[in-house]
Specification:
The protein has a 9-stranded mixed sheet with strand order 10-9-8-7-11-6-12-14-13. The chain has a 5-stranded mixed sheet with strand order 2-1-3-4-5. The chain has a two-stranded parallel ribbon with strand order 15-18. By secondary structure, the chain is of the alpha/beta class. Keywords: Glycosidase, Hydrolase, Multifunctional enzyme, NADP, Oxidoreductase. Its EC number is 1.1.1.193. One of its GO terms (molecular function) is NADP binding.
Length: 606
C-alpha cells in the first residue's frame, strides 16, 4: 500500500539538534549511507500496517550484521501490526536468532519503554545487539528518551539521527521517520488529531453539478486510493449536506480489518431517516450536533444504534478536541465546501489531498471544494508546502501541508526528568489517574496492552490469551452450542490484535444478540475481574505499577463507553477503573498479610 505522506521540510533544529555524544559512532560516509538506508527501510516497514488496523504508533525494525569486508546483511525485520501485538524489535530478533549477536538494530522511532512495557528494549539487550540506530526520539513526553537511556545503561551504543549522526545523507531518512508517524507527532505537539482534507474536483474547480450530482468525478483508481486513506484514519467526517445529497457509505473497501468511525456534523439534525450511514452493524456512526437539536430525531438515531454527541456550540475545533480526548490519531475530512472552509478557518486541517479529474462541467452555481474564507486579495491565499504531484489513472493527485510537522524539541522536562532533578516531585501525586490508550503513561492498565496470560478453560486445560480484551470478548460466546457462536469464539481467540478481537465481539453482539450467552450482563464484570487479576499477578512489574497508584482514583478515560469508562463529562460508571481499584485493595491486603506473617516468624525464631 502506498504511503499517504509526501516529503516535508523540517525545522533545522530537528535535523541537527545537538552535538555528537558518542565518539565511537561510525562516521565514514559509507557507514552513514548504510545507516540512512536501513532507517528508511525501518520506516517503510512501519507503514505496512497502515490501513489494516486502527492508527497507532508505527514501528519498524531492521537488524543488520557487518562482515569483515564491511558488507552488511539484513538478518531480521519486523513491524508493529497493532497496539497490543508483538513489538517490531522482538519480531526482528526472533527472525535473526544467533545472527543478532554483535549486530546493529535500526528503529524508525524510539520504542515504548515504561513500567509494564519494556519488551522492545529487553528483546534487543537479550539478543546481544551491539548498536542501535534510532531515527527519531519518541514524541510523547512520558516516553521521550527513556528507551535511549535504558539501552545505553545496558552498554549498547545508541545513535540518534540528527543528534549523534549528522550529515545530508540522513536528512531524507529523518523525514521518512517523521512522515510515517505524522499523526502521533501532531497529537503529541498540538494536542489534536492529524486532520486531512480530501476532495475530488473537475478541471474547472467543481465538486458537483449545479443540481448537486457528484458521482463520479474521479476515476475508480482514485476512489481506491480514497479507500486506503480511510483505512489509515480513526474517523471520517462529513457534513449534513453530504448525507442529504450523496447518501455515502464512507467504508474502507480494501479488504483489511480496520474500519474508521463515520462522523456527521449537523447543527440542525436536518437529516434523512433513510441513509446508508444509519446501517451500523459493520461500521459505527456518530452524529455530532448542537445541544437540544431535534430530540425526537436523536431518539430515532439512538434506536438505530447511532451514537449522538451534543456540543454547546458545534464547530470543527470542539469536535477535534473531543476526538483528541477519545484517543484519535488521524481524521479524514470528506465534507463539502461549507464545512471544509469552517475546518480550514478553525486551523484543524493539516494536510490536503486534491484529486483533479480531466473533466469540465461549468455552472455558475456548481459548488467548489472550499467555501467562503473571507479573503479579498490573492496575497491572503493559503499556500500548501511540500507539494507532491502524482498521476492516479487519468486524474492528478495534488497533496500538500497547510501546517508543517511540528518541531518536537522538548521545552518542559518530563515528569521522570523533573523527578530526577527534584526527588520531592512525584509522578504519582495526582488524585485522579486517567488511562486509555496503551501508549499513555498508564497504558499498561488498558485491556489492549500486550500482556498475555493463561487461564483454565471449561475442561481444566490452560489457554494462553494474548490480552484481557481477547478474553473478555470471547467469553460472550463461551458455553454455547451454536456453530456460529463457536466460530466467532475461535476467531476472537486467534485475532491478531486486541482491536480486532474487540471489533469481532462487538459486531457479532450487535448483529446477533441471540448468540450472546444469556447471563452475560450479570457475569461480565466478574469475567473482566478474573482476567485483570490474572494479568497483574502474571507480571510483577504491573502489580508494582498498580500499587504505586495508592491514594489515587483510577479512571478509564473513554469518553464514549459509559459502562467501563468515565465518560465525556464524568457521567460514566467507570467499572474498569473500579475493578482495578478493587484489585489494588486486594493486592495491598495480601501484601500486608504477607508482611505480618513474616514478622511473626521473625518473633518466633529470633
Amino acid at each position: 500500500m502506498a504511503s499517504s505522506f509526501g516529503a516535508l521540510n523540517f525545522p533545522s533544529s530537528l535535523i541537527c539538534r545537538a552535538a555528537p555524544i558518542s565518539s565511537s559512532s561510525p562516521s565514514s560516509s559509507s557507514s552513514l549511507a548504510f545507516d540512512a538506508a536501513y532507517i528508511k527501510r525501518a520506516a517503510e516497514l512501519a507503514d505496512k500496517s497502515s490501513g489494516f488496523t486502527a492508527p497507532h504508533p508505527n514501528y519498524g525494525c531492521v537488524i543488520a550484521t557487518t562482515a569483515g569486508d564491511g558488507d552488511r546483511a539484513v538478518v531480521g525485520e519486523g513491524y508493529l501490526y497493532a497496539q497490543g501485538t508483538t513489538p517490531a524489535e522482538l519480531q526482528a530478533v526472533e527472525t535473526g536468532g544467533d545472527h543478532c549477536r554483535g549486530a546493529t538494530a535500526y528503529l524508525n522511532m524510539e520504542p515504548n519503554h515504561c513500567l509494564g512495557d519494556e519488551t522492545a528494549v529487553s528483546a534487543l539487550v537479550q539478543a546481544g545487539i551491539n548498536r542501535v540506530v534510532i531515527g527519531i526520539r519518541h514524541p510523547l513526553q512520558h516516553l521521550r528518551g527513556k528507551a535511549v537511556r535504558a539501552l545505553r545503561s545496558e552498554g549498547l551504543l545508541v545513535d540518534v539521527l540528527g543528534e549523534d549522526l549528522q550529515c545530508k545523507t540522513i536528512e531524507e531518512s529523518i523525514k521518512a521517520c517523521f512522515l510515517v508517524n505524522a499523526p502521533l507527532l501532531y497529537r503529541a505537539s498540538c494536542r489534536v488529531p492529524f486532520s486531512v482534507l480530501k476532495y475530488a474536483m473537475t478541471l474547472d474547480g467543481k465538486i458537483a453539478t449545479s443540481s448537486g450530482h457528484a458521482s463520479w468525478i474521479s476515476s475508480k483508481l482514485s476512489r481506491t486510493r480514497v479507500f486506503e486513506m480511510r483505512g489509515r484514519s480513526d474517523a471520517v467526517i462529513v457534513g449534513g449536506n453530504t448525507v442529504r445529497q450523496d447518501n455515502p457509505r464512507l467504508t474502507a473497501r480494501h479488504g483489511g480489518g480496520h474500519l474508521p468511525q463515520r462522523i456527521i456534523m449537523s447543527k440542525s439534525l436536518d437529516l434523512p431517516e433513510v441513509a446508508n450511514l444509519w446501517d451500523v452493524p459493520e461500521v459505527a456512526t456518530m452524529v455530532a450536533t448542537q445541544r437540544g437539536a431535534k430530540r425526537s430525531f436523536q431518539k430515532f438515531l439512538a434506536s438505530k444504534g447511532v451514537e449522538v454527541v451534543e456540543f454547546e456550540i458545534l464547530n470543527p475545533k470542539v469536535v477535534m478536541d473531543y476526538l483528541y480526548d477519545r484517543g484519535c490519531l488521524s481524521v479524514l475530512w470528506e465534507c463539502g465546501g461549507t464545512l471544509a472552509a469552517s475546518a480550514i478557518s478553525s486551523g484543524v486541517i493539516h494536510k490536503v489531498h486534491a484529486f483533479v479529474a480531466p473533466k469540465i462541467i461549468g455552472g455558475k452555481n456548481a459548488p467548489s471544494p472550499v467555501g467562503e474564507l473571507g479573503m479579498v486579495e490573492m496575497s491572503q491565499a493559503l499556500e500548501l508546502i511540500d507539494v507532491q504531484y502524482e498521476q492516479v489513472g487519468p486524474d492528478m493527485l495534488v497533496s500538500g501541508f497547510l501546517h508543517p510537522v511540528p518541531d518536537l524539541t522538548p521545552i518542559i522536562p518530563s515528569v521522570d526528568e523533573t523527578s530526577a532533578i527534584d526527588p520531592t516531585v512525584s509522578p504519582y501525586e495526582a488524585s485522579i489517574i486517567f488511562f486509555y490508550k496503551t501508549w499513555d503513561p498508564y497504558g499498561a492498565f488498558s485491556n489492549f496492552s500486550l500482556h498475555p496470560f493463561q487461564m483454565p478453560d471449561g475442561n481444566g486445560d490452560y489457554y494462553s490469551w494474548p490480552s484481557v480484551e481477547h478474553y473478555y470478548q470471547a467469553h460472550k460466546f463461551v458455553g454455547l452450542d451454536d456453530p456460529v457462536a463457536k466460530s466467532c469464539l475461535e476467531q476472537i481467540k486467534n485475532a491478531k490484535s486486541p482491536e480486532e478481537a474487540a471489533r469481532l465481539g462487538r459486531r457479532t453482539q450487535r448483529q446477533r444478540p441471540d448468540l450472546v450467552r444469556s447471563d452475560w450482563e450479570s457475569v461480565k464484570t466478574d469475567i473482566m475481574y478474573r482476567a485483570l487479576k490474572c494479568k497483574f499477578l502474571t507480571y510483577p512489574n504491573l502489580t508494582s505499577m498498580l500499587l504505586s497508584t495508592v491514594g489515587s482514583v483510577l479512571v478509564e478515560a473513554s469518553p464514549h463507553d459509559l459502562f467501563w469508562g468515565g465518560g465525556r463529562d464524568g457521567e460514566g460508571l467507570n467499572y474498569l477503573g473500579r475493578l482495578l481499584m478493587k484489585l489494588r485493595s486486594e493486592l495491598m491486603a495480601n501484601s500486608a498479610n504477607s508482611n505480618t506473617l513474616q514478622q511473626n516468624e521473625v518473633h518466633k525464631f529470633p
